[in-house]
Amino acid sequence: MGSKERIQRLKEETRLNILDAALEIVKEDGWQSLSMRKIADKIEYTAPIIYEYFANKEGILLELTRKGYIILLQELKAEKNKHTLPEDQLEGMWLAYWNFAFKYKELYQLMYGVDMNCCEMMKAFPEAEGTTNIICDTIKALMTADPINDDLVCRKYFTFWSVVHGLISINFVRKGTDNETNQHILRDALKGIIKYIND
């Protein structure tokens, strides 16, 4: 490996270390506690080194948001590919969305504004649009109307999202009910929306 490649690899490793350190700090102390100084201390660098990779804390937040959407989109695609019927795909994808929220709680909070003021960030990424499109395309596959009404597709998407995001938020903020009860509530809600998708 040449010196240019080695330098580039070291830069990428440092960049990833910065992002990993930021996420560790958030897991320990929450998003409000994140600062460039804390990140520098965590990876034992000086703050100016961090600024060589990210202009400010918002740059780190944007990159972590992108990372979250990339992971979520991969998980939605994997779940959709497990099923052939659109109704099973929709249920599976929303369950995968639910699982993502609790497996990657801190990323979910950043992506969707639970306890944060970052909801607008999702508009900045093609990956975010991809997560919406894969679900909307599946909703369209269930619809019997010809031509398909895009406003209705959008309304159904937001019906799903409101219910699932609402349940996730309740569990984040108030700790909700036990997992088995949550799964019953979630599945009942999803099946109900799917059943009336053409209304």
TrEMBL record:
The keyword Transcription applies. GO terms for molecular function: DNA binding. Residues 35-54 bind DNA. Gene3D superfamilies: Tetracycline Repressor, domain 2. It comes from the Bacteria. The keyword Metal-binding does not apply. Keywords: DNA-binding, Transcription, Transcription regulation. Residues 12-72 form the HTH tetR-type domain. This is DNA-binding transcriptional regulator, AcrR family. It comes from Pedobacter steynii.
